[in-house]
C-alpha cells in the first residue's frame, strides 16, 4: 500500500515537471514569434527606405533629363543674320535660328556653337581651345631627349636630320634652291627599337613643340571623334609652330582598305584616315610643321598615306646589331653602378635579337639581382641573370620572330 502511494506521488511529481516544461517552452515559442514579427517589420521598413531612396534618385534623373541642355555644333555656313547651317556630331546638318546675342556676332565656318535642345536656337559661341579631348593629347614644349641618348641608330639620325631638322633650322636654303621641303617621315621597325626616342630627339635639336598622338587611341578612345581630333592636332601644331606631330601606331588608322577585318569600325577608321590625308595635303611644308609617323606594320599601310608629297621618306629602324647593342648598353649603363671588370662586348653578344627596350630592361633586371644579393655594384653574372629573365622569357624572342618575317 505504502509503495503504491509513493508511486502515485512520484508520477504526479513527474506530471507537474512535464507540465512546467510545457509552459516554459510555450512561453519561449511565443517570445520567439514576437521577435520574428519585429524582425519582419524592421525588414519591411528597410526595404521601404531603399525603395524610397531609389524613387528619389529616379525623380532626380527625370528632373535632370527634363532640364534644358545644349548640343554642340560646328558652323558650316552663315546663311543670313538670323540663320546658321550647323553640323551636330554625326546627326547631320541642321538649319538653326540665332538667339538675340548671336545675331550681332560674326561666325566663321568651323566655329563651335551651343544650340538649345528644346527650340534649336544657337545661343553661344564656344572657344575651340576649351575642347577637353584636345587637352588629353601629349604635348612637350621641347623634349629633353637628345641624339646622345640613342645608341646604334647613327644612319637613321643622319636621315632624320636631313628631312626634319635642317629644313626647320635653315628654310632659306630650300627657298633659294627652289626645293620643296619634305613634309614628313615614316619610321618603321619592330617594337622598342627607339622610334619614339628618335622623334623626341629631333624635336629637341630643332627646338620644336612635340605633339604625340597614338593611332590606336584615335580610333578607340575618341570613337566618332577621330577625324575631328586629326583636324585639332594639325590646328594645334600650327599654333605651336615650329612643331613636330608624332603619330605612333599609325597602322591603326592607315591600314589599306582590304586589310580591315572589322567592318563595323571600318567607316570610322576610314573617315579618320581620309581626314589625315586631307590634312597632310592641306598644310604647306614651309609652315614649320613636320609629321613623323611610326609603325610596326609597314606591310598593312595604305600606299596613299605614304606616297611622296605626304610622307617623303621611309626610315627603317631595325633591332640593333652587336655594335648597336654595345652602344645602347653603354648609354643605359651610365645610370647604374657596375663592377670595374665588366665585359660589355660579351654581354652585347649574348643579347642577340634584343631591341633597345629589351636592353634597358636587362640593365634594370641586373640591378635588381644585385640589390637582392645586397651588393652595391652590378657584376657580369647579374647581367647574365637579367638576360635569362628578359630575353629568354619570350619578350625578345617574339620581337625577333616578328622582325624575321617583316623586315
Ligand atoms: P614602339 O614601336 O613599341 O612604340 P619604339 O620603337 O617607339 O617602340 P621607344 O619607345 O623609342 O621604342 O623605346 C622604348 C625605350 O627603349 C626608350 O625609352 C629607351 O629607353 C629604350 N631604347 C629603345 N631603343 C633605344 C636606342 N636605340 N638607344 C637607347 N635606348 C633605346
From TrEMBL:
The entry's localization annotation reads: Cytoplasm; Nucleus
One cellular component GO annotation, for this chain's record?
nucleus
Q: Which GO terms describe its molecular function?
A: ATP binding; ATP hydrolysis activity
Report the family membership.
Belongs to the AAA ATPase family.
| Organism (species) | Hemiselmis andersenii
* UniProt-recorded name of the protein: PrsS8
What does the UniProt keyword field contain? ATP-binding, Cytoplasm, Nucleomorph, Nucleotide-binding, Proteasome
Gene3D superfamilies given for it?
Answer: 1.10.8.60, Nucleic acid-binding proteins (2.40.50.140), P-loop containing nucleotide triphosphate hydrolases (3.40.50.300)
Domain AAA+ ATPase, by residue range, is 181-321
The positions making up the signal sequence are none
Amino acid at each position: 500500500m505504502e509503495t503504491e502511494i509513493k508511486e502515485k506521488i512520484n508520477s504526479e511529481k513527474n506530471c507537474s515537471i512535464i507540465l512546467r516544461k510545457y509552459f516554459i517552452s510555450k512561453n519561449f515559442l511565443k517570445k520567439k514569434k514576437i521577435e520574428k514579427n519585429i524582425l519582419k517589420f524592421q525588414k519591411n521598413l528597410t526595404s521601404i527606405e531603399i525603395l524610397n531612396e531609389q524613387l528619389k534618385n529616379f525623380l532626380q534623373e527625370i528632373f535632370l533629363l527634363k532640364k534644358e541642355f545644349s548640343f554642340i555644333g560646328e558652323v558650316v555656313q552663315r546663311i543670313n543674320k538670323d540663320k546658321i547651317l550647323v553640323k551636330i556630331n554625326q546627326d547631320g546638318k541642321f538649319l538653326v535660328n540665332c538667339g538675340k546675342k548671336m545675331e550681332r556676332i560674326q561666325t566663321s565656318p568651323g566655329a563651335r556653337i551651343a544650340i538649345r535642345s528644346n527650340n534649336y536656337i544657337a545661343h553661344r559661341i564656344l572657344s575651340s581651345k576649351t575642347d577637353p579631348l584636345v587637352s588629353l593629347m601629349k604635348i612637350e614644349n621641347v623634349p629633353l631627349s637628345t641624339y646622345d641618348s640613342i645608341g646604334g641608330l647613327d644612319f637613321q639620325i643622319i636621315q632624320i636630320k636631313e628631312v626634319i631638322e635642317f629644313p626647320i633650322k635653315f628654310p632659306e636654303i630650300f627657298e633659294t634652291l627652289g626645293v620643296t621641303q619634305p613634309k614628313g617621315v615614316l619610321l618603321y621597325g619592330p617594337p622598342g627599337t627607339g622610334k619614339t626616342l628618335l622623334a623626341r630627339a629631333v624635336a629637341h635639336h630643332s627646338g620644336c613643340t612635340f605633339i604625340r598622338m597614338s593611332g590606336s587611341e584615335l580610333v578607340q578612345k575618341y570613337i566618332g571623334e577621330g577625324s575631328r581630333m586629326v583636324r585639332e592636332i594639325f590646328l594645334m601644331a600650327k599654333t605651336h609652330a615650329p612643331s613636330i606631330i608624332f603619330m605612333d601606331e599609325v597602322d591603326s588608322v592607315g591600314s589599306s582598305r582590304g586589310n580591315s577585318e572589322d567592318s563595323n569600325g571600318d567607316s570610322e577608321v576610314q573617315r579618320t584616315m581620309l581626314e589625315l590625308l586631307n590634312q597632310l595635303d592641306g598644310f604647306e611644308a614651309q609652315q614649320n610643321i613636320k609629321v613623323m609617323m611610326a609603325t610596326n606594320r609597314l606591310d598593312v599601310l595604305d600606299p596613299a598615306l605614304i606616297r611622296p608629297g605626304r610622307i617623303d621618306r621611309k626610315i627603317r629602324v631595325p633591332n640593333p646589331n652587336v655594335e648597336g647593342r654595345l652602344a645602347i648598353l653603354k648609354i643605359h649603363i651610365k645610370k647604374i653602378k657596375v663592377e670595374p671588370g665588366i665585359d660589355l662586348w660579351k654581354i652585347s653578344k649574348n643579347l642577340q635579337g634584343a631591341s633597345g627596350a629589351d636592353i634597358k630592361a636587362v640593365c634594370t633586371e641586373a640591378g635588381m639581382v644585385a640589390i637582392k644579393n645586397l651588393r652595391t655594384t652590378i657584376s657580369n653574372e647579374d647581367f647574365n641573370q637579367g638576360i635569362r629573365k628578359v630575353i629568354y622569357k619570350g619578350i625578345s624572342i617574339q620581337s625577333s620572330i616578328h622582325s624575321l618575317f617583316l623586315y
